[in-house]
Amino acid sequence: MELEWGIWGHNLSKILKEYSLPQTAYAQVGNQRVEDQFCFTSDTLFKYVNERIGSIYATDSALNKYMILPNDNDIVCTCNTCKAVGNTTTDAAPAVFNFLNSLARNHQELSFFTTAYVTVREIPKFKAATNVGIFYSTIHIQKGIPIEETKDFKDFEYDIKKWRNYVDNVFIWDYTVNFDNYFDIYPSIKVTQKNLKLYKKLGVNGVFLHGSEYDYSTFQDLKTTLFAKLLWDTTINVDQEINTYFHENFPKKLAGALTNYYTFIDNTFFLNKEELGIYSGINKSVKKYLDPKVFFSFYNEFDTNTEKNKYDKDFLKIATALTFLKLEIMRDNGVGTYGFATLDSENQIIVKNETILLLDRLTAFSRASNLKTYNEVNYTIEDYIKSWRQNIFRYHKRKHFFYKKPFKVLSKLDEDYKNIKTLNDAAFGLKDYNTNWLICSVDNLVLKIDKEEIKQSKKITLSFLQDTKHAIFYPSVIEILDTNYKIIKRLKLPSEDENIGTKEVSIDLPTKFDDEQLPNTFIVNIIRSNVVGKNALACDEIIFN
């Protein structure tokens, strides 16, 4: 990309930062100008972008491709000129292609691209210049399954044919990593191979595989090597190439272990029709390909090579990622064989010694390999380890009388969050909303519980997440009610400004000395924040102890 692209991705803001743009260069929404998006019929915006392209190309004539994208949001300019070229409140394609055509006329020796993504989805009513092209983003259909085998195939095929009739160059912007967890192996090589064959059959001109980011994703060197070979020849033997790669780059014993495991999971990933999107929690990875029994066995075999490879940076990066993955599987499993803890005869959670050792190993491996973050939003490994330690300190020897006990949810649950077992499985959530959180955005969370199930308890302890970027907020009120909805206990929670964080809230249960007693069946009512607009509640473990 560095050799051919003068502008790549969502970088208009970066190349324009040296200019003082007037308000008319930004999108108009209603009567307001919004600086989060551009107005693509703005003469000033065109002047500066046109000027900057000229100066980039003059500096290096090999930079002959330019990507012009709206900012990564769903804002569309509906000023008079944008509406005149065809913009609607949801479709920015007319103004964007009008902008591209103008650049294409001024620089006929260059190629200009945008993406079929978010607000650029429909074909304008006017023709595109011959040196204008499109990248079609698979972000909504890339779910770890060959596209031909999904319900989206017919729509995808129609879209590609539609764009090929409109522009000469149709490229695919594809995805090969889990952006919520770069350490998720996401072994999509055979899936990608089948998709590349499809793209070729549909007449696509080229493919950009969006994989590893600026830090590290697990086995990124292997995936880069094989993807590069597949882009030249879609028919290569993937299993054979995996074997060749590992044996050319690692000692024989280690190479054998890596080859056997990676071949197994790549085939499992390909054959299993469970969806695994590019923003997914560890539980979905486990369902797709990451069988705990197989992974734990492989981890132990891999670990026997540590002493001989402890100064090898590539080995240490893999060790960091695999140790992180093992901890994630244990966090998701909670209590049991593959969990981070056991439950003793007195209903006490006992944290395993192995958990402590793995956290120490993750600390050592990440420092030695100089890996600091593990996902798209730059969550740090250091903070991950710190959060783990805080949670297991709280959990160790804590009684959990509600563990896997039956209860009912009286409120309406979100379509994608119906697994109520999350609330009392002893598996804790961290700052990633995808793992171990029950998210409620359509209703408050209302539980019906039998006193008999928690009769030894003295208090209820609840865990919550706040992630303002995803409109998740701490609750405003927690109530304990009788079945007639009469209040027995009520706790009002203060609002907090933190953008992302977790917290526990405890409420003492009524004793025989209190005026209001806990009835045989009672209700726990967790009321969402009163923030204006879209807001959700994320609840993790509910512990009666």
Report the CATH topology name of the largest domain: TIM Barrel
**SS-derived structural category:** alpha/beta
Q: Taking strands numbered 1, 2, ... along the chain, how are they ordered across the largest sheet? A: 1-4-5-6-7-8
Unreliable stretches, pLDDT < 50, 5 or more residues?
none
Mean pLDDT: 95
Share of helical residues: 25-40%
Calculate Rg over CA atoms: 27 Å
Summed up, the helix count is 15
Topology:
Layout: E1 5-7, H1 12-15, E2 26-29, E3 32-38, H2 43-59, E4 65-67, H3 80-85, H4 93-106, E5 111-116, E6 132-137, H5 153-166, E7 169-175, H6 189-201, E8 206-210, H7 220-232, H8 238-249, H9 252-271, H10 282-288, H11 292-303, H12 306-309, H13 313-333, E9 341-343, E10 349-351, H14 353-369, H15 381-395, E11 408-409, E12 438-440, E13 445-450, E14 459-467, E15 477-482, E16 487-492, E17 500-508, E18 521-527, E19 537-544
Parallel strand pairs: 1-4, 4-5, 5-6, 6-7, 7-8
Antiparallel strand pairs: 2-3, 9-10, 11-13, 12-19, 13-18, 14-17, 14-19, 15-16, 15-18
Helix pairs in contact: 6-7, 8-9, 9-11, 11-13, 13-14, 14-15
Organism: Polaribacter glomeratus
Pfam families: DUF4838
Protein name: DUF4838 domain-containing protein
